[in-house]
Hints:
Helix 1 (35-48) packs parallel to helix 3 and helix 4 runs parallel beside helix 5. 39% of the residues lie in helices and 11% in strands. It contains 10 helices and 9 strands. The chain is an alpha/beta fold.
Amino acid sequence: MKNESINFLTFDIEEWFRANYNYVKIPNKIEDINLESNVDRLIEICDKYNVKSTCYVLGDVAKRNSRIVKKLFDNGHEIASHGNAHKQVCSMSQKEFKEDLHSSTCILEQIIGEKVVGFRAPSWSIKKENIEWFYETLKGEGYVYSSSVYPAKHKLFGIEGFTKTPHYPTDHNILEIPQSLTNIFGFQCGYAGGAFLRLFPHWFIERSIKRSNNKNEPVFLYLHPREIDATGERLSLNMIDSFFHYYNVGTRCEQKFCDLVQKYANSFMKMSDFAARYHHVL
């Protein structure tokens, strides 16, 4: 399938404290007072450059504040699932994942009045051991695509040897749109979202996107609302984790992100539209 410089703009809509560090304990009752204003800012950015995004929303967020989901949906952005409470898929049994997925799906669909067809696993938590029942479960819930795999080995996640372009990994007919990677001194590494976007210089990210697009490979930018919020609360992390989790959070991240959105505005497509087009072309 020829993608002709198709790219995606995506957001993981979750609170500032959502992170999967084993040593960090999150209180049961905690709120993110800045989340809605941060989402409002993301909507403003999209409106400024006339682009639409795909938003992976936690069921817990939608349940606590349906206004956030309604705002995104009413402004033309796709609503997809990020699970219910940011629990790693690899930490659950198939039954537990099915219950988690079903819960988030019901909450989101009740708010927007439409079928939710896309899913992103928290922390890229799909591994070889759960890949078969992961896609089977998505199929059972009526999903069409996933954007959940980091297609290389990473100390925290990833599947080494996984195909790096959109494809159907199993016979369950769920399209996987994996994270975009680039080669750095022989190592495969992400570059277009989260800590990668905040760490790497603008010229490097733009060059990497261009290289992928020249090979007809789509790239997705991704961002969390907390990453544009310099005033937000912070987790108590060790020195290394704190560096990667908070480096360039705030206006520097927002400006770099805006520059990239402006540059590639004409190429962005909702992931659900791409999945439908991909299936039709095959």
